[in-house]
Amino acid sequence: MKRILQALLTAALFLAAAPALLAQEQQEPDMDAIILKQVDNLTAVYKLDDVQVFFVDSILNYNYHAMMDEMNEARKVGASNNETFQGISDKWMDATDKAFEKLFTEEQWAKYMKSSYGKEKKRRDKRIEERGGIAPALTDQGSAADRKRR
């Protein structure tokens, strides 16, 4: 009787935890799907030709994955403040914008700068300027702000 009760209790706990585990898996973004959606959006809005689509896809794939790798590395060394992660994001989004500026025609770039992408670029440029043009440095101890909190 005791074993049956333990088995039922274990099964109940598993069933109670299963939805939370599934929800956690579903919340993690599929980076490739996000990139594909953004490539499709940029292609439609800016009427990119086939060569531009290829390069936009390549740029986004490389930069987004590199950004996520750098963020994961920052977490591993103990970074936990928003400034560090914002700096990493700004660095890679700035690199993406610079690549797009070279790739797009003057008309496409002007339209890009008038869009929400351009507005975000202006906010990002201001943050980068306020930081002295660089992202917060990471060391094996995390950023300076992270070390102060320890």
Write a concise synopsis of the structure shown.
It contains 7 helices and no strands. It has helices at residues 2-27, 31-46, 50-76, 82-103, 106-114, 116-130, 144-149.
Task: Summarize the structure in words.
With 150 residues, the protein is mainly alpha-helical. The protein has one domain. 81% of the residues lie in helices and 0% in strands. It contains seven helices and no strands. The radius of gyration is 22 Å and the shape is globular.
Strand and helix layout:
Blueprint: H1 2-27, H2 31-46, H3 50-76, H4 82-103, H5 106-114, H6 116-130, H7 144-149
Helix pairs in contact: 2-3, 3-4, 4-6, 5-6
Mean pLDDT: 79
Low-confidence stretches: 7-16, 139-150
Integer tally of domains: 1
Broad structural category: mainly alpha
Q: What is the H/E string?
A: HHHHHHH
Shape: globular
Helix content: over 70%
The span between the termini is: 51 Å
Number of strands: 0
Strand content: under 5%
- Which sheet architecture does the biggest sheet show? none
Number of helices: 7
Radius of gyration: 22 Å
Keywords for this entry:
150 residues, mainly alpha, 7 helices
